[in-house]
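hey
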């Protein structure tokens, strides 16, 4: 059923997002290396060989447009809008999140079908402050087909407006219907309840079928100055000389469209123990750089090509958590010069200066770090 703009109907929720997630930090290297590894292979594992996209400073949330515009069959809903509305209520800090169902899309699917779905919500507030989340949750009959959530603080003490995108590859395990819904979650960052507005939004099926599509999710890891982390990361069983755990592309793949979205929490000076943050630190912000890296290799382990999408942003401890968005479109798979269809694809997070940060993993309402690839 199509849900269109269900304004200001709060449902008490027991789920937690954003700051409710905690897990041990485990560093995942960019690739498992076999000795001897060539210098080119080492460069591809640890640093991009060449930048193919300009660095985005304070990059806005991306538009949700996908590679292909699907056609709708009878009874399907491929695009649903969210009408602007004011005075959404965010319950007081410590209370359950308010939950607002805002939009839904529906398509017919077969078992094993992967579908690219993206939702966008624009928030604003002139009140003290609220944490607001955008979550896309997909179901294939009674089965979970995937969910993702990202959140930021909004209000006069934080940022007066923000746009949050939540996108993923949904996976259907049975023939039938895939239904994806867009939700807003919120609670106040202070004792009194607060209000916020949703100025625009939509949910869409960007590509109804993504054969051989791949999605991986983030682990919760601690990054600090001089100590980068690599998550999420696409892995596989392919090897070239000196490098293993690479992803071999499906036969006939000519192009890749690579996405990665990661929620990141900046450690407060008091320490955020539930995130694995160190205590006793001093500072009011972190200069963070994230880089989506896609490297193709030759059969001898040399670098065939590297495409990157870096984003740099200074995040205050007051803002606390933000979303970093990345997209490398049109990665043409090379077949000359000894190039083979094997790739290392991952997101690197590093702190240039300031506080340590945490790459967030799943919350009950969805994954908080996803990397997915649309082959064609």
């Amino acid at each position: 059923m199509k849900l269109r703009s269900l304004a200001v109907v709060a449902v008490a929720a027991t789920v937690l997002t954003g700051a409710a997630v905690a897990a041990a930090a485990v560093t995942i290297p960019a690739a498992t290396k076999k000795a001897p590894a060539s210098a080119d292979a080492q460069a591809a594992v640890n640093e991009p060989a060449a930048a193919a996209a300009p660095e985005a400073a304070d990059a806005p949330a991306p538009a949700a447009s996908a590679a292909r515009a699907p056609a709708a069959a009878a009874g399907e809903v491929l695009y649903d809008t969210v009408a602007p509305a004011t005075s959404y209520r965010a319950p007081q800090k410590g209370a359950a999140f308010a939950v607002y169902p805002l939009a839904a899309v529906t398509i017919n699917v077969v078992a094993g079908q992967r579908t690219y779905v993206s939702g966008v919500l624009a928030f604003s507030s002139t009140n003290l402050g609220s944490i607001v989340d955008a979550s896309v949750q997909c179901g294939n009959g009674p089965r979970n087909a995937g969910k993702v959530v990202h959140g930021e603080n909004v209000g006069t003490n934080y940022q007066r407006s923000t746009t949050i995108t939540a996108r993923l590859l949904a996976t259907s395990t049975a023939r039938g219907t895939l239904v994806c819904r867009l939700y807003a979650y919120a609670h106040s960052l202070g004792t009194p309840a607060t209000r916020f507005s949703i100025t625009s939004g939509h949910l869409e099926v960007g590509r109804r079928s993504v054969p051989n599509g791949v999605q991986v999710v983030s682990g919760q890891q601690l990054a600090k100055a001089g100590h980068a982390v690599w998550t999420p990361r696409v892995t596989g069983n392919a090897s070239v000389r000196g490098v293993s755990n690479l992803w071999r592309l499906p036969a006939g793949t000519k192009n890749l469209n690579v996405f990665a979205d990661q929620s990141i929490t900046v450690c407060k000076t008091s320490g955020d123990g539930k995130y694995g943050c160190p205590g006793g630190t001093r500072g009011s912000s972190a200069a963070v750089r994230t880089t989506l890296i896609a490297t193709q290799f030759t059969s001898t382990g040399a670098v065939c090509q590297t495409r990157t999408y870096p984003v740099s942003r200074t995040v205050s401890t007051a803002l606390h958590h933000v979303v970093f968005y990345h997209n490398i479109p049109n990665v043409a798979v090379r077949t000359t010069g000894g190039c083979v269809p094997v790739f290392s694809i991952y997101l690197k997070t590093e702190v240039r200066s300031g506080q340590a940060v945490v790459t967030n993993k799943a919350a009950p309402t969805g994954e908080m770090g996803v990397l997915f690839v649309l082959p064609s």
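Helices lie at 39-46. The first helix runs from residue 39 to 46.
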